[in-house]
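Troubleshooting entry. The earlier prediction with nicotinamide-adenine-dinucleotide gave an output that would not parse, so I re-checked the input for stray whitespace and re-submitted. Clean input:
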Amino acid sequence: MLRRYALVGTGDRGQMYVRAMAEQFADRARLVALADINPARVASYQRLLESLGAPAASAWDAREVTAMLAKERVDVLLVTTVDRTHAEYIVAALEAGCDVVTEKPMTVDVAGCEQILDAVARTGRHVTVAFNYRYNPVHERVRQLLADGVVGEIGSVHFEWLLDVRHGADYFRRWHRDKQNSGGLLVHKATHHFDLVNWWLDDLPARVYASGQLFFYGEAGAKRGYDRGYRRAHGAAEAADDPFALRLADSPKLRQLYLEAEHVDGYHRDQNVFAPGITIEDDLAVLVHYRRGARMTYHLTAYSPWEGYRVMFNGSHGRLELEVVENDYVRPGEPGRLPTGGTPPAAADAPPEQGRYRLSVHPFWRPPYQVEVPGYTREGHGGADVRMAEVLFGAVSGPDPLGRSATELDGAASLLVGLAGNRSLETGAPVAVSDLLDLPEGA
Ligand SMILES: NC(=O)c1ccc[n+]([C@@H]2O[C@H](COP(=O)([O-])OP(=O)(O)OC[C@H]3O[C@@H](n4cnc5c(N)ncnc54)[C@H](O)[C@@H]3O)[C@@H](O)[C@H]2O)c1
């Protein structure tokens, strides 16, 4: 069956969906309409469709999204806008009788979360949260091993995520640097990680304590002498040899999407990461208690020399360890890697992800063993984006034993860890998730 799709939010991430519909899934998904507050970016998407030989899609002002959904007889709305605006489009689409696929985080606050859950209950339509990390073959294998009980009942999880000074810095160059837009990194970024743990443990968060700071970027870094004193890199002589500067003009993709569209909305994609005005943290520690009793210690660092993560599960029969190295260092002069993956980056954007993992099981009284995972690739979040698109666009059907597809309840469950963490950052006290929102038992 050919379903009619519209996309709101014609920025970087939306291109992954557009390419998927134009190429692999053209027989199942027809993109009929595009919306954004910036018509120049919508026009660049129309050119992209043309270059891919795909049928044209109509262009809309995002304020007219309800009219767009009706006029274009849309079945599914893809939401790839700035996080702060997700809830408004999700609810509008559900009310219009559409299903929704939304980028993470599902929204950035409790009110938005409640509005989405209410709208799903009222309309009976479906929301899928695009938690692509679930579809990384290594993460799927972890879920399988834990479900098979290889390390028994889980007592605790120790999880560290490192963002390097190229990708991590990117959250300090643009809209994410304002917590109102992104919810901060506990919401914007860690929603992926909290979702993985909820899914791996098949459990829900009960209580959260968080402590964090802006340690490296912003004025703190400026005091250490990192600041070159410019506001945005484009056109600034001081940025010429700054390893933290993003050079929009060097990449055809960045130039089209941002530089040539900024006259419309003043969106500067290349701000100085040490300039004032940042309201998010770059170094965060979180302690989570889960309903069935497991504890997690989690740490996110956004200014690391290498990018990757380590997660360990301590169980009643042993221990499972995963280490993934995505980039082992950042070369100066290559600051422009886009954070999405999905398609191989253009030469000026970045080198491909390096992609190296070590997954091991350590049973009691026996030697440890390594687990090999076929299908892990170097691109698109370990191969996850392509695999997720296969499910989203219906190319894989039937029951999924791993339960990878994430609903609005999964979106809420991971979001609530971040939101409770943010509340804890404000109050200095642990926060019961149920004080923010009562998740149903079956979530
Ligand atoms: N799952 C992943 O791996 C992944 C990776 C990157 C981004 N994302 C998510 O994708 C979304 C977009 O991120 P991006 O990197 O493409 O950002 P971006 O800045 O490149 O694009 C955001 C787009 O939203 C538009 N926009 C802003 N306000 C709007 C409004 N009120 N109404 C309609 N459109 C509006 C902007 O004009 C822009 O075109 C975010 O939610 C982000 O979390 C997910």
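This one parsed fine. The first strand starts at residue 3 and ends at 8.
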